[in-house]
């Protein structure tokens, strides 16, 4: 039961952080491009890289993985929103924009995860 609570608590924190970052991005950049979702997915990839690197090198254990990686980052990242936004761009005929968005999201998140791992490895 405690495992479920950890995931739920982390998910609530992650979802709230995603909401506020999305609002901030909308305020800064306007509604023309899904900057909030892109930022969340890139930051989420980086944070997951940090988390994976830290958890691999410590004895923090399963409770921390459940709270932070599954809960917080699961609530924070937005693949379903990414998919919807990509599809809506396709429907609007914004082919170049959707290709740039998909490439930046996928390649950027993978690169951000690698950067997070590299930071942990360099510090350790």
Q: What is the tally of helical segments?
A: 5
Average pLDDT figure: 94
The percent range for helix content is over 70%
Residue runs with pLDDT of under 50 for 5 or more positions: none
Strand content: under 5%
Which H/E pattern describes the elements?
A: HHHHH
Query: How many separate domains?
Result: 1
Q: Can you summarize the main beta sheet?
A: none
Describe the protein in words.
There is one protein chain. With 124 residues, the protein is mainly alpha-helical. It has one domain (2-123). Helices cover 87% and strands 0% of the residues. The longest helix is centred in the last third of the chain and has 29 residues, at 95-123. The radius of gyration is 16 Å and the shape is globular.
Tell me briefly what this model is:
The protein is mostly helical and 124 residues long. It has helices spanning 2-29, 35-57, 62-76, 79-91, 95-123.
Draw up the topology in text.
Blueprint: H1 2-29, H2 35-57, H3 62-76, H4 79-91, H5 95-123
Key phrases:
5 helices, 87% helix, mainly alpha, 124 residues, single chain
